[in-house]
Every structure is written in structure tokens, then in C-alpha cells.
Fold:
Amino acid sequence: MEDDTIVCRCEEVTVEEIRKAIREGAVDVTGVKRRTRAGMGLCQGRTCEKIVTQVLARELQKPLSAFKQATVQAPVQPITFNLLAKASHD
Amino acid sequence: MTDKADVIVIGGGIIGSAITYYLSQERVKVSLVERGDIASGTSGACDGNILAIDKMPGYDSQLTLKSQKLLDELVESVDYDLEYAQRGSVLVVEDEQQEPVARDWFTRQKEAGLPMRYLAGREVFEDEPLLARDVIGLVECASDASLNPMALVYGLVEASRSIGAMIRPFTEVTRILQDSTGAVCGVNTTRGMMSANQVVLAAGVWTPALAIAVGVIVPIKPRKGHILVAEQSPRPARRKVQEFGYLLTKFGGTEGRRVEAEMDRHGIAMVFEPTEHGNFLIGSSREFVGFDRRCNHHVLELMARRALRFFPTMRDIHIIRSYAGLRPHTPDHLPIVSPVPAVPGLYIAAGHEGDGIGLAPITGKLMSEMIAGEPTSIATEPLKLDRFDS
Ligand SMILES: Cc1cc2nc3c(=O)[nH]c(=O)nc-3n(C[C@H](O)[C@H](O)[C@H](O)COP(=O)(O)OP(=O)(O)OC[C@H]3O[C@@H](n4cnc5c(N)ncnc54)[C@H](O)[C@@H]3O)c2cc1C
Structure:
């Protein structure tokens, strides 16, 4: 992958930014996310998590299976303020 | 691992990293020890407001102003995009009942030297056109700012590393070690022993657990808070907006806010913060419910409802994520930045509740001054651990 290939399209994070995060100590998807915002956008990493994991595996020389999925945080699907607020009336 | 440093800092959150940075600047040999990844505690699950408006007028707000000055320097000197923006912030006054309290707060903050304004009537909607039409006032503090808190932690850690600090993530301190006189001589960790004659305990809400093992009681309790993250959208407001009632949930006393008991029970108060990425965050909740960091769905619902009370136009904007963190709460709302008299060489820097990001620079600076035995930038009596004795 080229350095300037965009991995996370929602937040426009490049491969090089992810490699830099790994050089600075990120060892998993969550660590990359905190340092680069990859996976923090609208799709919440559904598209880019696999590629981020591949970059991690290559840079840290570990098998793909060594990486856990990032913790899924509520809401699992985006929900509007209105719908979420209404839930508390039920 | 054989490891010898002048100072060991326990905790790779915003407080530990600021201390590591200021000590390293003074050429002190520091090892920063963190049990997980850097910024994996409360500093990775919070908001990035640097506010003076919500501090008690007096020592509290002076401490914040000092910290803001130091932060201005950090923004220049730390080679990291901190997403720093100084747009000011406003408190929304909901009704006539709140108005006298809000005006009093405004006056006291102004007297304490903050750049304050009180906006009423039409001025409110000229400032923030999308606020609910029934609110009646805004208290503004022009110097308030915000940044990306995790970027500040990573920026401080990388800057420290580049001038010689040892950074040890994924290394848990299991015990603080004392010599035969009772003075600190190092720590035991999951990766071996490390020695130093000074140890700074900056482990946020986890500080009491390590302190009690050396006989020191630290009155810090986790006060949980939730955040909702919205998608990118046209902005409901251009800068930080908090309901005035936030001060009530922060400092206690629920008089003066007309909300259901349910909102007060979970300490819900609307906090809106735009980010540099075109989206925004919504807080807040405040409750003592132990160390569980998972989101409580019911609390998230109440927060969404409270946000709509102030910004009805948010209704169709999507929430894409939520998270919760544990604020390190002390009984008097001030942090502990202090030597521990009973254990020579041991220091504590923790208990910053909802203000740790804003107060990190001054905390790091004060700790480096204390350790060097120099006069401190501001009086530290109110921050001493022994204020809780008796
Ligand atoms: C929802 C929310 C919103 C907030 N918004 C703001 C805001 O807008 N502005 C602001 O100024 N503040 C805000 N805060 C408060 C701020 O987040 C905290 O005050 C601050 O992060 C505390 O930093 P810390 O370094 O003391 O703790 P932490 O970040 O928790 O760091 C302590 C570290 O110590 C480590 N540790 C614990 N035990 C050990 C051990 N035995 N060995 C090694 N390491 C250990 C932990 O893993 C942790 O990383 C908010 C907090 C929350 C929850």
C-alpha cells in the first residue's frame, strides 16, 4: 500500500498516518483509532477496520488472528436524537 | 528489566503525561509506567474543554487561568495537532428562576478577572440562532477553549520521549516499594522491579488502590460520565454551549432547575461541544456507580432528551457512537497535587474530576516544581492531601 492511500474514508486517514500511530505505540485497532481517528466516523470502522488490522499485522509482524475486533460501542447502528430521546418515555 | 530513574510516574493519562513532560523539560530522568495503552483510562473517554466559566470564582478559576497560559505555550511547543480552538463558551439560562443565580455567577467571574459578558433577550439568538426560543440568557466567557484530549496526551508523551523520558506502556504497577526508613525506593511491576527515590501516583480513579497498600488513604471516587457523538452535520451551535444547570449537577444542590427527578438522579445536564471535524459531542451525566465503564442506555436516552430541550433542530441528526468514562472525584472538587508526608518521596497528582484536561498543564508544572523543591507557580495549600485529615 502507498503511504498516501486513504484507509478510513469517513475521517480521511492515510496508511502513513496509521503507520506513524503504530510507531508511537498503537498495538491494536483501538490504539490506532485513538491516535488517528480511523474508524471514528459515520461508518464506525465497518469499512476500514479490516485494512487497519492488516497494516497492524504487517508492521508488528503478527498474524491477523492476533488482533481482536475493536469494542463496539452503542448505538450499534446510527440513531437520531429524536428516536433515542423517545425511548426514555416508554 | 533493570530500570533506574530519578522519578517514576504511575499512570499514562493526561495528568501523568503532563508531569512527565514538565519533569523531562527540567532534565529529570523520568519513567512513565502505564498498565494499558497510553490514554486508555479516563483521558481516552472524555471531552476536551478548557474552561474557566464553570470553575468556582477564586482559587479554582485562578488555577485554571494559569493552566490556560501554560497550554498556550504547549500548543506552540508540542509537535502534534492538538486541534486547539479558542472560541469561548456560553452557559444557557433557562428561565426567570435561574436568572438571578446566573447573573450573580457572571458578576463574580468578572470580578475574578475572566472576560465575561451577559447576553439577554434578542442578543441570545443573534449569538446562537438555533437555541430553543424560550431560553432567556447567555453567560459568556471569551477565553474558553477546546482541544482533542487524546492528542494532548500523545503529544506530551512523544515530546517527553524525544527528550529522554522512558515510556513503559502495558506495564502494571503492582506495588509501591519502601526502604527500611519508610521512604520510597521504587515500584514492582508486571515486568519487573524499577527503582527511583521519587514516585508520582497519577492513576486517576485507580489512585486509592495503590495508595492504600502503603497505608495512605486518598478520598477519590469514580464519578461516571457519558458522551454521545453525533455525525457530521450543519452545526446546531458555533461553539461550546452548556446549560447553566450544569453547575448544579457539578457542584451539587439541585434547587433551581425544573427537571424530572430522573434527570437529577443521573446528574444529566446538557453540554454541547463542536469538534474540529464538523461533528459534535453531547454530554453530560454524573453519578457514583462504581468502576463500570460500559454505557447505560437509559442515561443515553435522557441525555438525548435533554439535548433536544435546548436544540430542537438536532432531532434528525444521527448519533454514531457513545462512550463513558470515570471522573476522579474528590470531596471538595479540587484535585490533589501533593507530597505524601507519611511516605517520603511519594507524591499524588489525581482527583481532577471533570477538569483534568484543562488542569493538566498547571498540575504538571506544579509537580515538577515540588519535586525540584522550587517555589510553586501558585499556592498549593488548597491542593494538599492532608486537607482531608480530621
Ligand atoms: C465524560 C467525561 C467528560 C469529560 N470532559 C472533560 C472536559 O471537557 N475537560 C476537562 O478538563 N476534563 C474533562 N473530563 C475529566 C478528565 O477526563 C479527567 O479529569 C482526566 O482525564 C483524568 O486524567 P488522569 O490522568 O488523572 O486519569 P486517567 O486518564 O484515568 O489516567 C490514569 C491512568 O493510570 C493507569 N493506571 C491505573 N492503575 C495503574 C497501575 N496499577 N499501574 C499502571 N498504570 C495504572 C490507568 O490505566 C490510566 O490510564 C471529562 C471526564 C469524563 C468522564
User: Anything to note?
Assistant: Chain A touches chain B at residues 11, 24-28, 30-31, 34-35, 37, 40-42, 44, 73-75, 78-82, 84-85, 87-88 (CB under 8 Å). Chain A has one domain: 6-89. The first strand of chain A starts at residue 6 and ends at 8.
